[in-house]
Amino acid sequence: MSQSFIGFGILSVLFGIATGCTRPQSGTTAGITTTTLSHDFFITHLAPAQAQPFTDNLPKENLDCLENIKQVTCYSAANVGFDPKCSKELATPEMINQFYAIVQSLPPLHKNILCHINRVQIQSMVAPIGYVSAITNDSQQTIGLMVGISQLALAQESKVDLFSWKEQLNFGFSKLDDPKHSVSKDGPTIFISIQKSSNSFLQYVLTHEASHLVDYLNSANQLDCLWPENTSDPKALAKCTNGENSFGAVSWPREYNIAFDGTGRQLPQLAAAYPWLMQMCFYSCGPTISPTNVTEVYKELSRSSFYTAYSTVNEYEDFAEASTMVLTDKNLLKYQVLSADKNILFDVSEALTNSEHRQKQEWITNFYAKPDLKFKF
Ligand SMILES: [Zn+2]
User: From CA 142, how far away is CA 144, in angstroms rounded?
Assistant: First the structure.
């Protein structure tokens, strides 16, 4: 093959068409290789020795939602990713029931996806709050879909403010390797509430995660990165293209370059329009944004077409956040960023009225109105 389609260590893809060429991969252990599309969105390739037991243990067709979730849920003490040691015995009925209860509150397509999911890993220790992965075999065929969710996020009375912790990473107020996920009182905090929800936090997270699977199954994003062949030159550039009518084409350049070694994308138009937002780094921070610029960051967000700061990470996160915001009843949803002295720095309900959002909102609404969207692989 003369060319290959693949990802940046951070982004990737030609969805639906796996080329079998040399994809850059982020980790390989015992027959399990993970390609990272985004912080919480992966493709897991299983070698035959791992794929066979996975496929053999999938429940038979036509189970009801709760029964399916019961059969596919396990508890993992490992970090992010497909865990062959994930224990069914250690997944408690409380965990399973809490997960199931939130699934019932999701938008119809998202509920359907998680009712038909092939693996749920409750994670004792996980950096992203939740994540999803497609599972593929040696022939690059999809053989399953999985979701991982932090045990902390499942707890009804979580004392840990994971959303604020995640936001504060950008400014150095919180630390990625802090097992307590501590939030600084001097940094911005996120307030999310979905009225009538038994767990707003988890409902938001699972809508976001299932949206990545909507994207995977239905090619909302069509991001195609063409990598130079036969070179190990770290300065070599890959050329990425967002498909013409794809979601990514709404807010992202149709074409841009990324470094061969996966560091940094070249998005000069976006960097010129949103100098602060393009410095947001979340789970991959090197230098962080100075705390003195917090207000500027959220001013910029308020006049942008991005629903949240996390939307600016890449096309995949943009789709997941936009889906969550548009599909959750806006009369019930409250999403604000508050300053240390509790002033509102950003309120999504105000941002939604700006004209920048109109095109994106329309794209999402039209997309979810399609009658034939896939909910399983
Ligand atoms: Zn995500």
Answer: 6
Residues 6 or more apart whose Cβ sits within 8 Å of residue 133: 34, 41, 42, 43, 44, 81, 82, 145, 146, 148
How far apart are the CA of 295 and the centre of ligand 1, in A?
Answer: 24
Instruction: Please give the distance, rounded to the nearest whole angstrom, from the Cα atom of residue 176 to the centre of ligand 1.
Output: 17
* Residue linked to tokens 């767990």: 199
Distance 231 CA to ligand 1 centre (A): 31
Provide the residue count of the chain.
377
Q: Report how far ligand 1's centroid is from the alpha carbon of 10 (Å).
A: 12
pTM value?
Answer: 0.91
185-220 pLDDT, tens digit per residue, is: 999 999 999 998 888 888 999 999 999 999 999 999
Least Cα distance to 113 among 214, 221, 215, 16 occurs for 214
What are the residue ranges of helices labelled H in the chain?
48-56, 65-72, 93-104, 108-115, 151-154, 162-168, 200-218, 248-251, 268-273, 294-302, 315-327, 348-351, 356-368
Q: Do residues 228 and 236 make contact, with C-beta atoms less than 8 angstroms apart?
A: yes
Q: What is the Å distance from ligand 1's center to 252 Cα?
A: 17
CA angle 149, 151, 154 (to 5 degrees): 80
State the distance from the centre of ligand 1 to the C-alpha of 359, rounded, in angstroms: 21
pLDDT tens-digit series, residues 90-130: 999 999 999 999 999 999 999 999 999 999 999 987 667 89
Pairing of strands 41-46, 130-136: parallel
Task: Tell me the CA–centroid distance for residue 66 and ligand 1, in Å.
Answer: 25
